[in-house]
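Hey, quick one: can you model this chain's 3D structure?
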Amino acid sequence: MEEKTLQNEHNIMGTLPVNRLLLTMAWPMVLSMFIQGCYNIVDSVFVASLSQDAFIALTLVYPVQMLLVSVNVGIGVGINALLSRRLGEKRYEEANDVAAHAYVIYLSFGVLCAMVGAVGARPFLELFSDNAAVIDYGALYLSIILFCSAGVCLQFAGERMMQATGNPIWNMYIQASGAVINLVLDPILIFGLFGMPRLGIAGAALATVIGQWCGALIGLYLVSKKVRQIHVSLRGFRLKRDILGPVFRVGAPAIVVQSLATFMSLGLNKLFGLHSEVYVAVLGAYFKLQNFLYMVVYGLGNAVVPIISFNYGARSRTRVTGTIRAAMFTALVSMCVGMILMLAIPKPLLMLFSLSPEALAIGVPAMRIVSLSFLPAGASLVISYVFQATGSNSSSLVLALLRQIVVLLPLAALLLYSNPACTWWAFPVAEGCCLILAIFLFRRSYRRRIAPLEDRI
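Sure thing. Here's the predicted structure for all 457 residues.
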């Protein structure tokens, strides 16, 4: 009886008009990303006010946080693709099993991170700096983030359940609640307001993990009470190869793709650190601003992957191609706005992070150069999301490798040691090369995977 009820229940990803569906799915995620972006910037502003050493420490720790998020996102790609496809195929009992596996996988990864954080935080910082203050700040912050990382992992699990079942509003609540709690706690714990002890950079880390755990608990509640298409239960749970296999076949390449940004950041931190810590500070400010200015594209990605996965499973070419066109238009418009902001007001944006006059002198022209990469980056990111949703994982991996490793790092190293002021041109050159390859790979993937689908709504 329960399965029959579920089969009669319409999933909006297969029924709403495509443009309206993308708007419905994307705006809560974009709003969540906006709140998260505000948090990231405000958090960095608070830490930068402690000292430039503290901000540099946060910059050096940032790649590890990116890796943590990258693995979670990659796991989510595998979970979302399989869960959305099972729902599109109306195989509801199997969808329930996928959802249960999602929580077990995410929790296991959180435990692994805690073990790594307990022993690896300080040795990691020592690889990138010989400044004792930077190492102390960074090791303290990183150890807290990793030891309590099960919270962010479980928060991701709840978000993926909402995305796959077409519940973007509840997904927004999960993301936004953690970010808002984080924003409120940041100044209280960092500066010791309202009678709390002044914890400095440790307060920033504690505010982060408390917000993540609150988001995780809210997600657990919403999944159990508000989602009717799936039922998550660990009673009698056992691992199944026919779920783990597809999840990691899709998710592993996505993890690699997402993690390449981590290795790119690590490489740039090492290169810039050997040249000057001022360059590391400018790079850290750029990454924080980039995350904020890319928020619409990141939000789109969270909507595009489950929408295309669902309709790819339902074999509707019209809905798949309509989603791609709408996502591409929205991404390009948003990235154009970000580029204009970075070209017009780079100095006020950089001054948010209490950078030294020397860093501002380097950063202003650097931000204008890097902003030229935004438009090609937006287009190639949308194409990468399409590859993830349709199972063209090798293509997504090739694009990320080209953008972040093959072109960017060697070119940045060459320019840094020949003409440091030109180092930032490595970003737009890498994105331009990536877009050219992305267009070629998309044309091939379209003929093989999307064109054979049925021409129906």
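One thing worth noting: The radius of gyration is 22 Å.
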